[in-house]
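Narrative progress, year one. The postdoctoral researcher (J.K.) led the effort to move from monomer predictions toward full complexes, under supervision of the PI. The following entry was the first complex the group processed end to end, covering 484 residues in total.
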Amino acid sequence: MTQLTPNRFKGKLIIVEGIDGSGKSTQLALLSQWLRSQGLAVAFSEWNSSPLVSETTRRGKKKMMFTPTTFSLIHATDFADRQERYIIPLLKAGAIVCADRFAYTAFARDVVRGVSPSWVRNLYRFAIQPNLAFYFRVPLEVALGRILGGRDSIKYYEAGMDLNLARREEESFRIFQGRILEQYDAMAEEMGFHIIDASGSIEEQQAQMRRIVMERLGDAVASGQILNQEGTTHAFEATTAVL
Amino acid sequence: MLSKQPLQFYSEPLPGVDVGELQGKLIVVEGPDAVGRSTQVARLKAWLEQQGHAVLDTGMGRSALASKGIAQAKEGHTLGPVTMTLFYATDFADRLEKEIIPALRAGFVVITDRYIFSLMARGIARGEDSLWLEKVAGFALVPHAVYYLRAEVPTLISRTVMGRGQFDFWESGMDMRFGPDMYESFVRYQARVIRALDRMSMRYGFVTVDAAKPADQIYRELQRHIAGHFTPRKRPSKKAK
């Protein structure tokens, strides 16, 4: 049982999760663009991107200083900074905040690294409960094909090299991502994820996301609760979503 | 009181640590800002070394991983309360795993200037949930002793003004604006910190030391207590003194 902090603000929090190569970032970008085109105030926040914490993270990675516990804590610190300084003020203002990865990334990844599930779930209790959480489920081989084909090298921690799963980065990455995938699948129901079949076409996935957003946030948008450009209609234009 | 033996984890075992291998002593000096902790830690370290113990002294905010980042974050005055708690928890975890545990494995006496209790007290003073904090810090080792240097706010004010000569933004809790200026914010914030530490005192078995007394007297009191932790294992080599 995970207790996050209920969202008592006007704005809405939409998050995407999935293993590397699941296509979640592409989908979130398309969704944000569409929401903006509807005249709505949309903000974006990415995992591991706090300027306050980035130097410490970079340092720890470069010098391989992280243990499972400090790796987990520094990412929680990063998230706390983004939430306190960026996400909460924007939610208060009534914006839709789109987050690429969320606490669930820690629940999956840090647990694979060896921290206890109950400890890391408690750690993120301060995190605002998303209004919508999309999980891009994709078979491991499909995701690996997208990643390994496109990039020349995988970084040390990204590949889970600190876990000593394999000697070669590519092999380690494969095992690591496979275990993370298992964790995501195991928590999908508990966390109320909207599961998107990420092996489908980009257009299909996007249409499905937009449908769910309209269904779940339609009222908040129609009532003007979500901050919007003056003069635009306060309802989703259905045509854009049909595709 | 949490009935746990020294050098057990409070609630959350750290991955890859066998507490059975730890054989040193872990001594914590706690207390609010400006109470005189670092003076005592320095003297205790010198004394213990003279007794033939290898001593590691460490303290909050001194980790190889996070000390720079924390210092920089504090310069900006934009560090939020939860972010601060977690940044310090990162700092603590790094020191625990990379300094304190290896030293304990090697049989050192570890003296630490603050432990998880200041981290928790600062968080509680800023309105964070004590159960959340306790679980976040649950990977800490139970120390052999926690000496709580306790003083009231007027003593802290006097030592701050006579010592550094000015109030510090963070020691005054100015990030939370507990008062209209640094002095008033300091008074309210430090009172909250002291209250939070007082509440932990029973639960964590603090040995409370009246820090309003002169430093020499506090030192002798600490010496007497700490000596008690070593009596059963007096080494013959020490008789040389």
